[in-house]
């Protein structure tokens, strides 16, 4: 059984996901939240295995991963951006699923992540090149280590950074990598 918290700013998306998950054997929604503040409190209270999080809230991924125990995180993306695959890895997400994907794809990702695996799309050279062009040259090594999912303690030791300075550098890196949302028509 995989316990899941859903965090999404759209009420209809939250309700729909919770309803869908209730019908799927082995996936148990234990709560829904609007955003970072409510979501973090809910996760601390419910201690889910997996958080299904709107991809627009990448900063929350890092906060969730800092909890003890840390839940696994699957990002749910409403738009396509080739660098989102890279950004999800930098943020520390364990999975990335398009909101346009079939329900079975989402269920499979939640199950894989709930078992301790990942559900991240493969990296391609174009996505890495695009990401590398968005960051400062001094952050390229940091980008590479985070994309390879190197443990933060190892990253800090390798770059000779204290945890607070590393956190600030990662936040700066995420800000530069954040995908641009498509404009409404």
From TrEMBL:
UniProt-listed PROSITE patterns: RESPONSE_REGULATORY
Keywords: Phosphoprotein
Signal sequence residues: none
Positions carrying 4-aspartylphosphate: 54
InterPro entries reported for this sequence: CheY-like_superfamily (IPR011006), EvgA-like (IPR051015), NreC/VraR/RcsB-like_REC (IPR058245), Sig_transdc_resp-reg_receiver (IPR001789)
Coiled coil spans: none
CDD domains recorded: REC_NarL-like
Gene3D superfamilies (UniProt xref): 3.40.50.2300
Residue ranges annotated for the Response regulatory domain, each copy included: 3-114
Pfam families: Response_reg
The protein, known as: Response regulator transcription factor
Originating species: Solirubrobacter deserti
Organismal lineage: Bacteria, Bacillati, Actinomycetota, Thermoleophilia, Solirubrobacterales
């Amino acid at each position: 059984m995989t316990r899941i918290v859903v965090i999404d700013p759209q009420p209809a998306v939250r309700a729909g996901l919770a309803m869908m998950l209730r019908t799927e054997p082995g996936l148990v929604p234990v709560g829904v939240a609007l955003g970072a503040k409510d979501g973090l409190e809910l996760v601390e209270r419910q201690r889910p295995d997996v958080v299904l999080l709107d991809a627009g809230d990448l900063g929350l991924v890092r906060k969730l991963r800092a909890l003890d125990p840390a839940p696994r995180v699957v990002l749910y993306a409403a738009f396509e951006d080739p660098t989102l695959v890279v950004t999800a890895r930098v943020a520390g997400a364990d999975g990335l699923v398009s909101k346009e994907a079939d329900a079975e794809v989402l269920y499979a990702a939640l199950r894989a992540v709930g078992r301790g695996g990942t559900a991240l799309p493969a990296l391609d050279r174009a996505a890495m090149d695009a990401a590398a062009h968005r960051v400062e040259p001094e952050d390229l090594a940091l980008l590479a280590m985070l994309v390879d999912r190197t443990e933060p303690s190892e990253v800090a030791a390798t770059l000779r950074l204290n945890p607070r300075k590393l956190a600030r550098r990662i936040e700066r890196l995420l800000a530069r990598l954040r995908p641009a949302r498509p404009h409404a028509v």
